[in-house]
Amino acid sequence: MTTPALLPLSGRRIPTLSPGASSFPHHRATLRLSEKFILLLILSAFITLCFGAFFFLPDNSKHKRFDFGLEDVLIPHIESEKEARHSSRQVIHGVGAHDEHPRELRERMPRATAETKTRLETQTHTVSIHLSPEGEKKKNTHMMKHAWDSYRQYGWGHNELKPIAKKGHSTNIFGNSQMGATIVDALDTLYIMGLHDEFKDAQEWIEQNLDFSVNAEVSVFEVNIRFIGGLLAAYYLSGQEVFKVKAVQLAEKLLPAFNTPTGIPWAMVNLKSGVGRNWGWASAGSSILAEFGTLHMEFVHLTYLTGNPAYYQKVMHIRKLLAKMDRPNGLYPNYLNPRTGRWGQHHTSVGGLGDSFYEYLLKAWLMSDKTDTEARKTYDDAIEAIERHLIRKSNGGLTFIGEWKNGHLERKMGHLTCFAGGMFALGADGSPDDKAGHYLQLGAEIAHTCHESYDRTVLKLGPEAFKFDSGLEAVAVRQNEKYYILRPEVIETYWYMWRFTHDPKYRQWGWEAVQAIDKYCRVSGGFSGVKDVYSSNPTYDDVQQSFFLAETLKYLYLLFSSDELLPLENWVFNTEAHPLPVLHQGNITLPGSETQR
Ligand code: DMJ
């Protein structure tokens, strides 16, 4: 290093201190003793300064926690968990017939994830040009703050918030409970965004108030994806035991829902009495495919964390029962009667009533480190039938996913169905017959169609359902399909497409959504849904949905973050956007093993 130095004592300028004699003044070959001493003094002061600066550098480990490359997240609570372990040697085992003790699996996870992390670190420099638009991320964090602070002020402890009336809100999915759904659903988003005070506040409320011994009839599906999923994700991210304990307590309360003649759970269960029943509107007392088919991820993690095989066995039993059933045209109907084990109406949908069943087949495979090949095969077969019967191109060239109703295709697509773009992209790698490119393209086409459904409205927000019929392309017809209730699915697909393609248009589309939400849904008491996206003067529905904080704002934040934040190699997002770690090397299929109810 060359250091032009000034000698204050003599006031003389010393030329560059390089070892060659030629750089010294010619009239004198050596320095005097006093000059040598001063020079030595300056050099040692300089070296001390360098060392000091090194030690006072900001603590990088704080930032590293937010990489969530997993290794640093998981190690602390693997250690702390040793004492709390379930003593019985329950097994999670699979193909290859190796019985795996959950602890052994856990001990392997850090190694496997460290390897993944190293691999990632060598790859990410190639995409760094697109990373970290800090302004957009900040905007999302501010929106989260506004949603959270408003709920904190006006709806604290209630399930959701009425942002216009500025008071608590709830719906029948939570029964008459006051279980702070927004608090639990928002936990991991707060954590990921670095809103630590808010996270602590939420944790305190959960420690002191979250009690599941309430006389309330709740939706098994909703409580599973929002509460159990939310608590498990918070546990994995923060390592705080309380979240795991609460998740397990709640899961115990859901188990009676599986006491049906077939083991297909009821849609609802009373948390106190354990009595279950189905929705009155569901075809002839049926359970719903997207509800009983969206338990797998959380239940596998519950078994993994507790060593109790019951959760795993419940969901594997559902899978095995479905595998034995005939499927009309290879399609899964949305309704299944839990008493008789027969299908109800032959309706098939990749939107409401069907959606997350398909999503969880794919994610079961991903979460098992791609070892649950049974799940992958079931997913591939289902998607093939869906493509054959439900996916079409409109006259205007837009790819859409319709709904199958008793042998007839309804050319209508729901906002909920838009998640499928992301699902196709996520499932591209590993698809049969080398069709990865095809599925990535299909994902891109669905993303495009869903963006059109936003772009063709006045508010630039998407309607609940839109048609491709009688000259109509991606627009809602009925008044009761024109609302936007802060749903995440379109943004979810933008995020997955961004992760897999880095095409900047996905960030552009996400940014359009941010601006529209902020302009038309933001009110002084939080964020509200709007009743008509085609009206320039829309009325509000006065509900701030908990999934707005759990999903919509999280996916937006991730869309503008580096791929290293929650890498998809290590994390799988449940259907409510709660990230759960991949169980590396933990094969979670149980072919040939006994499953019980
Ligand atoms: C969320 O609760 C979940 O994404 C669920 O799978 C269906 N959709 C809602 C939000 O729209």
Q: How many DSSP-defined strands?
A: 22
Helical element count? 19
Q: Distance between the terminal alpha carbons, to the nearest Å? A: 72 Å
Shape: globular
What this model shows, in words?
With 597 residues, the chain is mainly alpha-helical. It is 46% helix and 9% strand. It is built from 19 helices and 22 strands. It has a three-stranded antiparallel β-sheet. A hairpin with a 5-residue loop joins strand 13 (391-393) and strand 14 (399-401). The longest helix is centred in the first third of the chain and has 23 residues, at 33-55. Residues 1-29, 50-67, 69-131 and 586-597 have low confidence and may be disordered. 1-deoxymannojirimycin binds next to helix 19. The active site is at residues 222, 355, 464, 489. Belongs to the glycosyl hydrolase 47 family. It is an enzyme of class 3 (hydrolase). Its main location: membrane.
Write the layout of secondary structure elements.
Layout: E1 5-6, E2 13-14, H1 33-55, H2 60-64, H3 71-80, E3 92-93, E4 99-100, H4 102-123, H5 134-155, E5 160-162, E6 167-169, H6 181-192, H7 196-209, E7 217-219, H8 220-238, H9 241-254, E8 268-270, E9 276-277, E10 287-288, H10 289-292, H11 296-306, H12 310-324, E11 335-336, E12 347-348, H13 355-367, H14 373-389, E13 391-393, E14 399-401, E15 403-405, E16 408-410, E17 412-414, H15 419-428, H16 436-455, E18 465-467, H17 489-501, H18 504-520, E19 522-523, E20 526-527, H19 546-559, E21 571-573, E22 579-581
Antiparallel strand pairs: 1-2, 3-4, 5-6, 7-8, 8-9, 10-11, 12-15, 13-14, 15-16, 17-18, 19-20, 21-22
